[in-house]
Amino acid sequence: MTYLLSISIGPVQDFIAAARRTADLYAGSQILQELSRTVARYLADRQARLIFPADKEADGANKILAEVETDPAKLAEGAKEKAQERLEELWQESIDKLPEEYRKQINHQRAQEQLKHFLEFYAAWVPLEDNYPQARQAVERLLAGRKALRDFAPTQQNDEGIPKSPLDPSRAAVIDPKEWSDVNIRLEDGSYKPLRIKSTEYLDAISLLKRCYGVRQSGVVVDTRTMARRAKNPEAMPQERWGEDDDRITEPQPYFAILVADGDRMGELISRQDNPEAHRALSKTLDDFAREARQIVRKYRGFMVYSGGDDVLAFLPVNQAVACAQDLSEGFRHRVRGTLSAGVAVVHYREPLSQSLQRARDAEKAAKDGGRNALAVALHTRGGAPITVVRTWDKLRWGELLQSFEQGDLTQGLAYELLELAREWQDDMNVAYLQAEAERILGRKERKGLRLPLFESRQDLLDYAKELVVARFLSGVELEHPKEVARA
C-alpha cells in the first residue's frame, strides 16, 4: 500500500530568531536546513518519492511530504533518529574546533541532555488512494493535531543554581562565560576567529552550537554594521570593520534594512494541485525561486539569511531594500504565478537583533493585512515613533522619491514640515486650504519643481509625508541634522 507521509522538523522561528549576532542568526537557519536535508535524503534513499521538497538537496524545507511504500511508522522513526544523529554530529564538529582547555570546561552531561530534547519532530501518514487532495488535507490535519499534542518531557539538566541561557531561558548554561572572553575557534583554513562571548552570555548547548557554527561560517556572514556601511560603500566587507563594540564610534549611515517576504495564499495554491506530480512540479518551482532569490539579494549587495520556497529573510543596505523587494516580487510572479507580500524594517545596526527581526516580521504582517500583494516599509529610529507605509506593488512611488533625495532635490526639512502640518490639521477643515499650505511649504523647501499629489483628505497628506520621511532614510543619504531623527 502507498502512504502519504508528512514530517515537520523544528523548532523554526524561535530557534532561528534566538540570536545576539548575525552569525548566530545565520547558524540557526543553516542548522535547521541541514537537519531537514538529512531527513529528505534518508527518505529518498529508501525509495520514498519526495513531493515537497521535490529535490532531497533543496534548502529550506523544514516540512517534508512524500509518497512511501514501506511501513511509514518505521520510516518516520528512522528519519527522526537520523536527524538527531546529525544534530549531535554538528555539535561535535563544532566543539572539536575549540581549544582543548575550553572543551574541558563545557558541562558535557548537561549539553547532551539539552541536545537530546531539542529537536521537535512530528510525523503523520494516511493511505494514498485515488483522491490526492483529500489525502493531503487529511494528513495535514493529523500532523497539526499531533503538533498540538506535543510532548512536554522535562529535561534533566541538573541545573540547580546554574544561570539560565539568555537566548533560551528554558535551558541552563553549559559554560561559565567569564572564562570564555578570549576564546577563539579554528576555521577550515587553519586560522582562528574569536567567538566574542560576553561575560553575561551564559550559553546553553544549542546557543553555543549556533555561536561556534556561525563563527566558522564567518567567511559568508555579513554583520549589521557592514550592511549599514554598504549604503555608502557597496563593496564594504566584514573584515574591514573596526571598533565593533565601541559605542563612541559613529557611523555616517547607521541604518540598514531587514527584508521578510512570503508568498500569498500558498495554502490555496497547493490545494489546487490535484495529484502528486503537479504538487511536485510546484515544489520544484518554489525551489527554483529560492535559488533565484539568493541571486537577487546578492545583486543588491545584501546577505541572505534564509531562503526556502516562498520564504525570504535578508539583510540589505537601506538604499537597495525597495529595489530588491520589487525584484523578488517580480521573480515570484513570473516563476510561481503567485503574489508576494514583503516587509522591510529600517533599523539601527546597534539595536538588539531579536527586536529588529520582530519589527521586520511586523512589517510583513502589515503588508498581508493591507490586502496582500504589497510592500510595507517600517522606519524605526532610535528614540522616535515608528512610521509604517503600506503600498501595493503597482502603486509604489519610492523610486522617484529616493532619486529626489539622492540628487539633493528634496530637503530633509520638507518631509518633517509636511508631517507636522498633517498632524496639526483638523479633519473638518477645508482640504483646499491644506493643499495650498502644503504647496507653500514646498515652494520654500524644494528646488527642482517637484509636484505634490492632489490631497483629498488630511490622511492623504499624512501618508505622503510619512513616505517622504521614510524615503529620506531609504535613500541612504547621510543625516543632515541627527536631532531630526527623533522627531520621526
UniProtKB/TrEMBL annotation:
<dbReference type="InterPro" id="IPR054767">
    <property type="entry name" value="Cas10-Cmr2_palm2"/>
</dbReference>
<dbReference type="InterPro" id="IPR038242">
    <property type="entry name" value="Cmr2_N"/>
</dbReference>
<dbReference type="GO" id="GO:0051607">
    <property type="term" value="P:defense response to virus"/>
</dbReference>
<keyword id="KW-0051">Antiviral defense</keyword>
<feature type="domain" description="GGDEF">
    <location>
        <begin position="254"/>
        <end position="380"/>
    </location>
</feature>
<dbReference type="InterPro" id="IPR013407">
    <property type="entry name" value="CRISPR-assoc_prot_Cmr2"/>
</dbReference>
<dbReference type="GO" id="GO:0000166">
    <property type="term" value="F:nucleotide binding"/>
</dbReference>
<keyword id="KW-0547">Nucleotide-binding</keyword>
<dbReference type="InterPro" id="IPR024615">
    <property type="entry name" value="CRISPR-assoc_Cmr2_N"/>
</dbReference>
<dbReference type="InterPro" id="IPR043128">
    <property type="entry name" value="Rev_trsase/Diguanyl_cyclase"/>
</dbReference>
<dbReference type="Pfam" id="PF12469">
    <property type="entry name" value="Cmr2_N"/>
</dbReference>
<dbReference type="Pfam" id="PF22335">
    <property type="entry name" value="Cas10-Cmr2_palm2"/>
</dbReference>
<dbReference type="InterPro" id="IPR000160">
    <property type="entry name" value="GGDEF_dom"/>
</dbReference>
<protein>
    <submittedName>
        <fullName>CRISPR-associated protein Cas10/Cmr2, subtype III-B</fullName>
    </submittedName>
</protein>
